[in-house]
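To: structure subgroup
Subject: Chain for Friday's discussion

All,

I'm putting the inputs and outputs inline so they're searchable in the archive.
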Amino acid sequence: MKKFSIIFLGILMIGCASNNSVVVNTKQGNSVDDLIQNKSFEITSNWAAPRAVKLGTLIPIGGGSPANIAITGTVNYLKLNGDNVNASLPYFGELQNGKGFNTKKTGIVFNGTPEDYTVIYNDKKKFHKVQFKIVEDNEVYNVTVRLYNNLSSRIHVFSTHRSSILYTGVVNELSDLASD
């Protein structure tokens, strides 16, 4: 009985493990490798996770907790189209700069050509890491994007004016989301 329990527990642990190495293709049949190579994709996030904020100071919108906020009902994206990066992401967190804050642009919004654009593939953990820096309205954003083979994504945004925030979601081709 003890041997059976150990075998059952082992199978259960293997079966419940997340597998980011499984390659999933988009509706057009392209893999994450293709999206990276073509420099053409759009990420839509489902969750935002503010970093380094005092818990209890945030009121979650749409469910979740102050540490993990559901954003499925909000318009949000990060698009890469050639050498242009365009993003509109809701922001939950602390303002780090004593200067005035643009109340018309409370989210993370930028559009332009990124600096220091790099792509590295982590063969051990099976993800692409895209990093770049972009400046918008005197605010510098350092962005790290992880794209997994199963089309899941993580966007980590570091800013000169705000505390950092992490978004999790899915990646697709630009045409996928435009045609839905």
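Points worth raising on Friday:
The two ends are 52 Å apart (CA to CA).
The chain has one domain: 24-179.

D.
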